Backbone:
């Protein structure tokens, strides 16, 4: 990878003399960009191009070549790649489209290309990509017109257009880039390789990415987490809605977009700053490239006008940040700096009378104040203002101990030169709201960096027992299991299960009920019935022998009427659970990111209010508590509206046990405890009902092929 | 008002020869702006200024003067205003700050100024304002450096800085303005006057406003509704959070910010396009000034790159709009236009191969397609692109039958001249997301315009009965009423109340219970106890005489223990309500906007999930249904999770009856039916409990002063 990004020599297979053709433009960009190593144009026609000798064949070039950019059309790419392999290059960049994204024929071409590179042990960037830029070595191996100037941001993108748009934006702000990597169809090199490489790259201070799908969820999370530990990773992930997934599938040929919840959970785990719009991607990455994340959520606003200050205060509160109190020292300092100010407050309205020096002095005071974590300076165009001087005064006082962002309202001419702002590392925003959203993103990143070390608790469990149940089921192909077996598994993992037994006759049911004590719950056990209660297959609070006998016969009668085909194993008689709060705990195995835990309050809260939290397993105790408290209905767990306070800690333990179970057994595809009944502090939650399903064992898949 | 905006002649009281002083800058702006009527500088010093004779006194000018701009400091404003009154001007503009916003002394100065203007029967704009611009007559009576060019947008703002920022933005987009009105402290002329005037102003096609508080809610809603009927009104209202309200209070001296829900309800009623950020204010108003609102929610995306198309599709779905199917004719047309396109779809990825002509032809096809309501064209910078030509080709095909918006990604140089785009009325956005948010705002405005005529149903009620209860209470000063009296009032307005009677002894309670039939509910009646059930003051499902007698004594005993001070009137014995869904219907009288109705599902849904809908009274049947269906828990009303479907129509009627009650009796300050028990279709909801409070009668207030 590193060699692909840092070649000593580079060939362009398909170099062309016709301006406008990719084979010309890439060569032209390489030459114009000022790459200092050998540039080797390759074309059967031979001759000379842009002052360089054109080789008819890559093999005829006498010295080694590190990277070959292949600019020929899709059909000719395989031959070019074979030649590159023959020349023993380290990697190839394939620009052409017409591969996987264009249908079955293209897909076949891509498979062939992948096979050639894999066999030849060379790395492949693309196809269907813009190319590669490394400003450090003045390498512009792309068909992007301009080479950006060197800088702190590295961009990678699944869409060439987004890559160019970001470079264009950066350029218009006089911001530099370290690398720009268009990953295109990701036939070999994916976001994971790029994250790994950029994490190690000293020139890159912030990694900025655009993704539509993720190739390997587990490796992605790992790579992104490692990268985030070193430097901020800001990603815009599109294809998060049904319409977006469809659109992404149309143009990249991947059906990669998964439910957004899984991405949300994965991004949170990995510490990724998630941008929810194209502008946010640029906003967040610029600030993170220039300034440190804040140590807390307390924001101080300095504004030369009241209105924008009010807008900022609204935005800060809505973002979950705090319009903070300044310390009494700062108050005194402000009074001293602005003797004409009638009120000393946050937002600090300095009025039109404030000079650039006033702004500078105020910023100094705010930077010295430990009760302020971030500073937002707003400049609205006012009569007699000197916005450029003010910005300069601010920039001159920046000490980078806490983030300082500026918002310049109005047209572009209120601003000093962008070059100057970029050089001073003062990020600026066209509105207070965007600056505040950026502070929030920086704060989240800071919080992630400050997170406690992750210690996943491992509870003592009976793993063997679960292994036996699962392998038997996988052997027999009965991949759905119902309440009874699910409870067996959960019991082995430390869950509290009530006394109960399967019964096949009214008499046996009565006997069992007497043994475990009244009242009891009675439930139909049938592999073919999933929603027991919808079919009258559940009776609660059955209080006497007579009632148990009656219920048994009635349930059997009714279930045979409603579901005559159903195979009935019997009726499960169980001790009736104490009253408590009903919650749902679940796990689904995401095809990208693996086991994802789910929590929500029973019934209506999950189904109607969609008040659900998700988290990737394995989960730590802290994360489990956070997961619980991220639901709106968390208030109810703490006791409210006549409900008793429940044992939140025990609920967190339940989540961790499920996490352990899901991690221990990749065979479990889905799992649902619905409901888990949680009681007062000091009590153990009870599994009232549960279901699971298993994945088809691998050998079945092989047998089927 | 119209005369204030269209003066024939204008005086500047306090005209100054010192550049940088407001008295100089306003005069300079007037002269430079090219105002064609007489400009009369007034200053005791006399002499000449910018080629104009300076009058020592406004009275010494021989001809009539329509408007005087007062540019002297706050302390001298009263004298200047008196002189203006003496000269019989129509209105004055007071620029100086140092009035209400600066504390008690300023407040007194403002009161004096208001009194002078009121007595002199002249209108007053300001104080603490930027001034007034009317491009039609080249009037720049402000201290804003530039006079915008004439155009379709009128701006009014409570913050001078926001006014300038908007003008600046408009200018940088080469957009014109009709008027710019800085309303400052709104001592006389408020947003209501401005809305009324701009609604009538032919030069204004869109009204754009920034507000921090609203002076008179009722008049505002009326004026905004009238204005919206003629032309779009786009408003950014800040001070919507606790921090924002505090900030607004600091700099405008008003504690105007009310709970955001009231503003939300008022804005919806009035058809205002509410911008939720500074950028949205500009985004929405630009599009509405240039293009018609869409007839429906179906958006077609044309993009020259896949990535931004995917981002747009995500944004459209998230905004509640539809990534639509094009008609089969359009599909054929597109295949014909783009023979090289492998897929014909929405988003339509035209690829880098598309020429400007292709874009133009596609737009024509999309404009002709009745299954498309709005078109979004995305241009990302690509190799070989001609963004300027493409934009020109698009602009050339616009027929304004449906909105067409463009999104240009990347730096500014990807764009054609802004002048050209403005002249072609093609609004453009820096990101697909902002363009989509704008289409949504336009769609909402279109929906509002298409709303059915509002027919408020008036039910036959016993108004006299309610009048008697309220006036008695207001006389005695007992302004809170409990369940029994509240039910009397609700019964008079057609609500179903169950049989019940007040009782003062166990014997009487038993007698009543027997009369109305078991089971009964028993509730403490006490003017001093608000939360009856918290104190054990409610017993439900009391099933026999013995239980009634026991409950009576126990409740009395307990309540005396818990609340020994409470005056107990007795115990209300009532027929037990049938089971049903518990909902809350309420009304609070907003100080700005009057009676505001509230609806939510009982208990947890309102208090924990905040799943509540608000609407201003009077409400129509349609609006009541909409209000119900705007809650997330609406699904439950339709039957879900074992709950029975309830009579939604009857619930809508209940809302309308409350609306009528609240409109008929401004004396009712607050009202709460909690719960209202709603049953299956065909049944009438039952008021299970209710409370009300009344406003202090006017005469009490007078007596107190």
Residues:
């Amino acid at each position: 990878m590193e060699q692909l990004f840092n070649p000593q020599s580079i060939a362009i297979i398909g170099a062309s003399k016709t301006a406008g053709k990719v084979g010309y433009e890439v060569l032209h960009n390489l030459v114009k960009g000022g790459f200092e190593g050998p540039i080797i144009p390759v074309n059967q026609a031979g001759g000379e191009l842009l002052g360089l000798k054109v080789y008819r064949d890559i093999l005829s070039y006498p010295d080694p070549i590190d990277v070959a950019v292949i600019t020929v059309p899709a059909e000719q790419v395989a031959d070019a790649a074979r030649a590159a392999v023959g020349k023993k290059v380290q990697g190839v960049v394939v620009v052409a489209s017409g591969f996987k994204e264009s249908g079955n024929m293209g897909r076949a071409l891509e498979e062939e290309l992948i096979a050639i590179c894999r066999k030849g042990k060379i790395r492949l960037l693309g196809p269907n990509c813009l190319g590669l830029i490394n400003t450090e070595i003045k390498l512009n191996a792309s068909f992007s017109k301009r080479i950006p100037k060197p800088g702190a941001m590295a961009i990678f993108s699944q869409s060439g257009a987004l890559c160019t748009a970001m470079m264009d934006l950066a350029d218009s702000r006089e911001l530099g880039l370290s690398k720009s990597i268009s990953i295109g169809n990701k036939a070999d090199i994916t976001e994971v390789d790029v994250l790994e490489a950029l994490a190690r790259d000293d020139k890159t201070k912030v990694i900025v990415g655009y993704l539509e799908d993720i190739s390997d969820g587990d490796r992605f999370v790992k790579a992104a987490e490692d990268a985030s530990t070193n430097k901020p990773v800001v990603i815009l992930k599109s294809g998060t809605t049904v319409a977006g997934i469809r659109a992404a599938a149309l143009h990249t040929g991947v059906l990669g977009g998964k439910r957004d919840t899984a991405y949300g959970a994965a991004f949170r785990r990995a510490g990724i700053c998630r941008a929810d719009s194209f502008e946010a991607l640029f906003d967040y990455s610029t600030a993170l490239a220039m300034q440190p994340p804040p140590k807390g959520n307390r924001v101080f606003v300095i504004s030369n006008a009241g209105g924008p200050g009010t807008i900022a205060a609204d935005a800060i509160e809505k973002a979950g940040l705090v319009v903070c109190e300044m310390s009494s020292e700062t108050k005194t300092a402000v009074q001293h700096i602005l003797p004409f100010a009638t009120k000393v407050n946050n937002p600090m309205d300095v009025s039109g009378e404030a000079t650039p020096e006033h702004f500078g002095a105020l910023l100094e005071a705010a930077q010295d104040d430990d009760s302020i974590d971030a500073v937002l300076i707003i400049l609205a165009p006012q009569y007699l203002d000197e916005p450029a001087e003010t910005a300069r005064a601010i920039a001159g006082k920046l000490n980078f101990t806490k983030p300082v962002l500026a918002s310049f309202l109005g047209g572009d001419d209120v601003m000093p030169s962008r070059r100057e702002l970029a050089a001073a590392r003062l990020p600026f925003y066209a509105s207070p709201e965007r600056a505040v959203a950026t502070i929030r993103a920086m704060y989240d990143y800071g919080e992630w960096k400050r997170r406690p070390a992750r210690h996943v608790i491992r509870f003592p469990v009976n793993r063997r027992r679960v292994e036996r149940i699962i392998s038997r089921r996988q052997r027999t192909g009965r991949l759905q299991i119902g309440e009874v077996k699910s409870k067996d598994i959960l019991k082995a993992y430390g869950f509290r299960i009530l006394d109960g037994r399967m019964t096949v006759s009214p008499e046996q049911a009565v006997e069992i009920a007497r043994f475990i004590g009244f009242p009891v719950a009675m439930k139909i056990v049938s592999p073919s019935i999933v929603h027991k209660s919808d079919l009258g297959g559940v009776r609660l609070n059955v209080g006497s022998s007579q009632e148990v006998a009656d219920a048994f016969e009635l349930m059997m009668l009714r279930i045979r009427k409603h579901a005559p085909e159903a195979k009935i194993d019997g009726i499960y008689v169980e001790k009736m659970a104490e009253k408590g709060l009903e919650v749902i705990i679940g796990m689904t195995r995401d095809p990208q990111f693996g086991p994802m835990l789910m929590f929500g309050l029973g019934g209506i809260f999950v189904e109607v209010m969609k008040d659900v939290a998700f988290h990737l397993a394995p989960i730590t105790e802290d994360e489990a508590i956070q997961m619980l408290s991220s639901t709106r209905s968390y208030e109810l767990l703490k006791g409210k509206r006549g409900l008793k306070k429940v044992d939140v800690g025990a609920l967190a333990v339940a989540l961790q046990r499920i996490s352990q179970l899901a991690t221990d057994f990749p065979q479990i595809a889905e799992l649902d405890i619905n409901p888990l009944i949680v009681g007062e502090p000091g009590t153990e939650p009870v599994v009232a009902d549960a279901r699971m399903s298993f994945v088809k064992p691998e050998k079945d898949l092989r047998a089927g092929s």
Q: What stands out?
A: Chain B touches chain A through 94 residues (CB under 8 Å). Chain B has 25 helices and 31 strands. The first helix of chain B runs from residue 2 to 5.
